[in-house]
């Protein structure tokens, strides 16, 4: 990949546009190889009739403070949402490109993460019986063996089976990134490959992408010395790549972005603002502390032909470059209270659907039923519900495309 050859058109205090970003920031090492691998994966599945392919982005991006990097800014994301969702997409028959932060959680192995459930704790050592040890000359039968006790094997078996299935079928491709720069270049490359899938491609953008970065010309080459006293940083804004992704890179793709807030009051206005600004199909809102138990789907209804087929809008140019939520019709914040597990609220132009684990569990309890899921130990995970809903919407998007052909 050639290095940027001309000077930045953004010099000074102008914020970076997506275009000026890619003209001025160097592509990461390994981009060509990773892009070729992703293209090969897409082409393989493109030829399989009806096969749907999803890009899952996962984990946080880093912002290095030095080019010989000792220190960097990071965020909280462990990649749970992305790794878990990838498993459910696979179980729904998708081919999955899992674009993830290096060393963040991965599909299948996430169940045995070193901090929560170290895999060494699963294993037991069985010493050979004195008979075996005495009678055999071969060292293998006299050595201790390692076994997975039955109570762990029961849980491990379905995970291992699903993992082997994905490996044998070649339906999971994992590609890693570390910095926000790696992420942006890889996202653009994979989207360029997936665009050829048309409506069969889904983009599930769960990564927590840094909003600020240090452009190359502002990054210190060597370790910043603490002897120089306090450290002041002025960071530039990362361009929001959702706009070109939706409108130029993959106009036919089914695009799902996430919105994370810590103030629940902001969740729906911000999700609506994102839909309005970028013109894609769906925003999944989640509040930091409740993200494992409830999420809200926010979609437009105004120009859609049916409840299940969100239309792709054009994006609202008046909102370019602003993070302020627009004054939307019926802007009142709606938290979906009392709407049930998949409570639906219709407001002018927007539809909100809440998915809540608690409601499902309470509903099942009231009905005297046990509610089981596909998670470890048979529990329900919110991602199982999210993916079930998304598969329906994605299929409706594909069908609507065929009707208009
Ligand atoms: O990994 P976990 O611990 O399970 O946490 C999961 C999660 C909370 C990180 C995830 O569910 C989530 O909400 N991810 C999105 C976080 C967020 O709010 O991102 P954002 O507001 O910066 O961006 C919104 C969307 O725009 C995202 O889909 C992002 O991929 C996209 N984006 C962001 C920055 C940028 N420069 N360009 C983008 O396209």
From TrEMBL:
SUPFAM superfamilies: CoaB-like. Residues 193-291 form the DNA/pantothenate metabolism flavoprotein C-terminal domain. Keywords: Ligase. Pfam families: DFP (PF04127). One of its GO terms (molecular function) is ligase activity. Residues 15-25 have a biased composition (Polar residues). Residues 1-30, 304-336 are annotated as: Disordered. InterPro entries: CoaB-like_sf, DNA/pantothenate-metab_flavo_C. GO terms for biological process: coenzyme A biosynthetic process. Belongs to the PPC synthetase family. This is Phosphopantothenate-cysteine ligase.
């Amino acid at each position: 990949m050639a290095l940027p050859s001309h000077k930045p058109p953004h010099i000074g205090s102008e914020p970076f546009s997506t275009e000026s970003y890619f003209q001025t920031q160097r592509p990461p090492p390994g981009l060509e190889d990773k892009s070729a691998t992703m293209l090969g994966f897409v082409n393989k599945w493109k030829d399989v009739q009806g096969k749907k392919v999803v890009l899952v982005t996962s984990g946080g991006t880093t912002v290095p403070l030095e080019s010989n990097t000792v220190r960097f800014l990071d965020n909280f994301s462990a990649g749970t949402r992305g790794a878990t969702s990838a498993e459910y997409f696979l179980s729904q028959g998708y081919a999955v490109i899992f674009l993830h932060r290096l060393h963040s959680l991965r599909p299948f192995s996430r169940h045995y993460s070193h901090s929560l459930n170290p895999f060494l704790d699963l294993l037991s050592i069985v010493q050979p019986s004195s008979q075996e040890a005495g009678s055999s000359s071969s060292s293998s039968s006299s050595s201790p063996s390692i076994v997975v006790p039955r109570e762990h094997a029961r849980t491990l078996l379905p995970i291992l089976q699903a993992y082997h299935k994905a490996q044998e079928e070649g339906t999971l491709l994992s590609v890693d990134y570390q910095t926000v720069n790696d992420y942006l270049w890889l996202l653009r490359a994979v989207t360029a490959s997936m665009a050829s899938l048309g409506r069969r491609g889904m983009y599930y953008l769960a990564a927590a992408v840094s909003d600020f970065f240090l452009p190359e010309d502002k990054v210190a080459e060597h370790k910043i010395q603490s002897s120089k006293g306090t450290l002041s940083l002025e960071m530039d804004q990362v361009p929001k790549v959702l706009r070109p992704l939706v409108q130029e890179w993959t106009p036919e793709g089914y695009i799902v972005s996430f919105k994370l807030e810590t103030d629940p009051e902001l969740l729906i206005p911000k999700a609506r603002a994102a839909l309005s600004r970028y013109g894609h199909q769906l925003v999944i809102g989640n509040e930091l502390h409740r993200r494992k138990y409830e999420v809200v789907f926010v979609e437009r209804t105004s120009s859609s032909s049916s409840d299940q087929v969100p239309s792709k809008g054009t994006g609202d140019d008046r909102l370019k470059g602003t993070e302020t939520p627009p004054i939307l019709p019926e802007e009142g914040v709606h938290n979906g209270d009392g709407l049930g597990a998949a409570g639906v609220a219709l407001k002018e132009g927007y539809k909100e659907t809440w998915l809540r684990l608690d409601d499902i569990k309470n509903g099942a309890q009231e009905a005297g039923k046990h509610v089981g899921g596909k998670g470890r130990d048979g529990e329900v995970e919110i991602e199982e519900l999210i993916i079930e809903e998304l598969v329906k919407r994605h299929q409706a998007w594909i069908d609507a495309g065929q009707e208009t052909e």
